[in-house]
Amino acid sequence: MSVLLDTMGMFSRKSKAADDKPAEATLALKDSSRGAEESNVERLRNPHFNKGTSFTQKERAQYGVLGLVPSVEETMELQTKRELQHLRRKTSDIEKYEFLMGLLDRNVQLFYKLVTENISECMPLVYTPTVGQACQEFHLIYTQPRGLYVSLNDLGNVQALVDNWPEDNVTTIVMTDGGRILGLGDLGANGLGIPQGKLQLYSACAGIPHHQCLPVILDVGTNNESLLEDELYMGLRQKRERGETYDHLVKEFMQAAQKRWGRSLLIQFEDFDNTNAFRLLEETRHSYTTFNDDIQGTAAVSLAGVLASLRVTSKVDGGKKKLRDHTFVFLGAGEAGTGIANLIAHAIQEEAVDDGEEPISEAEARRKIWLVDSKGLVTKTRKDNGELQHHKIDFAHEITDDLIDAVKGTEFEVKDGRVTSLEQTVHMLKPSALIGVSAIPRTFTQSIVEYMAEINEVPLIFALSNPTSQAECTAEQAYNWSSGRAIFVSGSPFDPVDVELESGEVVTKYPGQGNNAYIFPGLGLGVLAAKATTIPNELLYVSAQALAEQVVDEDLDGGRMYPHLSHIREVSAKIGVRVADRAFKLAIASAKRPEDLDAYVRSCMAQPIYPQTRL
């Protein structure tokens, strides 16, 4: 590995005992060999080395860049202020996204300083919702490679591609095949924007060093005809591969990555379609440290929102005080929906144990949860039961006589043992929580939300589909249709809403965004700190608990079920500590447990500052 790449650390952090720490790159700039490697102009064009106007006069002389930057010496804080003004001059979100990627290409440290200190403003730009548009237009706004491209054409040669990556200390990979990007469908090779955005949040929110992160696109073709017909599309021009060849490519990449970077390498699957998401996670989770954010991250952040909501509903007469008091109905039974459902069932079991009550079986916990898919309510009596995907089967319940009687003689009466719509389901089951992960907009209709408010003093309305355009309802609709009583959570951000309550008082509600960035950076931090070899539900559960515990009364009073994004680094630190602690207790950690786990995990979080230069 070149000295240049060995010294390109994005962040600075204190050294720790070699026994306890994850491996890290040397951050000092070794000028003795740079002269042979780079010209003075090349140094300024190297985004990992460039400080721009923050180079001191001595550094400018040492590196031969006197006169090549303005004569003023500026602090990083002043540089950040200028870049923030540049950002705010852009008139559209996609222009802001392109500006931020341009900043990343010329000054890595400054990019992360700007994003970290302005996370509430920048997160919607580097990730959802703007990254959705960026992926749709990826082939149009492409400027230079920022990741590893592995295609079907590389079968048999993937190790060579992995070995070409210039960083010897990769700890975190986010990979996608572009099969199901957010709620936008198959975007093929354009999907690389998603791993890039996720890893930027790993670094900004939890201090995972940028140079230790690798975004990967598995280019297996696409069924998106508009992309296949676009001469500027940069992926394979063929239909999506779904057979053994696909599996061979995934396996070859996983083996090559682990061979180079070791068993503790964290590999996150991102935006794979349902056909592959569950299967790949199950096939790899015991031999690799793998994580699927769509299944597990969405589950943990959603559970955290429900846990936080209990502090509101428990204060209401007849309100829900425990998870097991709720009845959950999901619209959408794909990877996100069943992932959330499984983790809620696990949490119901954990809750009973924590409360010192009789243990609740997994089957009993799952009976609190019902799924609605494109064909209606998932039940044991549905005629297509034999065709149910395996991940739905555990939630295929029996419709009992008392449920049938609840809607008998009404327009929602059950006929032929089938419940075909969400509204019919809501009237029959009378749930307290409605969770949308369908990627079908406006499916939480006025009549459904009004009925939820009729049967619940504080209904839970979680419209989690991304991006904003795919949400099952808007924040304004949820609040207005429930007279301001609903607890609303969305997957993408919504603006605050002024709502008139039944008393006539007008209050401002601040919708809670169930952003996975509350979970996966801190989870990854804890996993890497402990060098966990697998990520079971127990780690997801404690992540959700740690997140929910950081919601303060002020947040709840305003309608938020999550902490303010400005606290995301502290949120990630606390999640990381809780995850690492549980990993050690479960004996799935390969690292030595430090005496002060809190201090150790925090010391793993790199800070966005320029490294010190040795002159």
From TrEMBL:
Residues 295-584 form the Malic enzyme NAD-binding domain. The keyword Metal-binding applies. Residues 22-52 are annotated as: Disordered. Keywords: Metal-binding, Oxidoreductase. The active site is at residues 127, 198. Divalent metal cations. Prefers magnesium or manganese. Residues 104-285 form the Malic enzyme N-terminal domain. (S)-malate binds at residues 180, 466, 515. Residues 31-45 have a biased composition (Basic and acidic residues). A divalent metal cation binds at residues 270-271, 294. One of its GO terms (biological process) is malate metabolic process. One of its GO terms (cellular component) is mitochondrion. Its cofactor is Mn(2+); Mg(2+). The keyword Ribonucleoprotein does not apply. GO terms for molecular function: malate dehydrogenase (decarboxylating) (NADP+) activity; metal ion binding; NAD binding. Belongs to the malic enzymes family. This is Malic enzyme. It comes from Hondaea fermentalgiana. The lineage of its organism: Eukaryota, Sar, Stramenopiles, Bigyra, Labyrinthulomycetes.
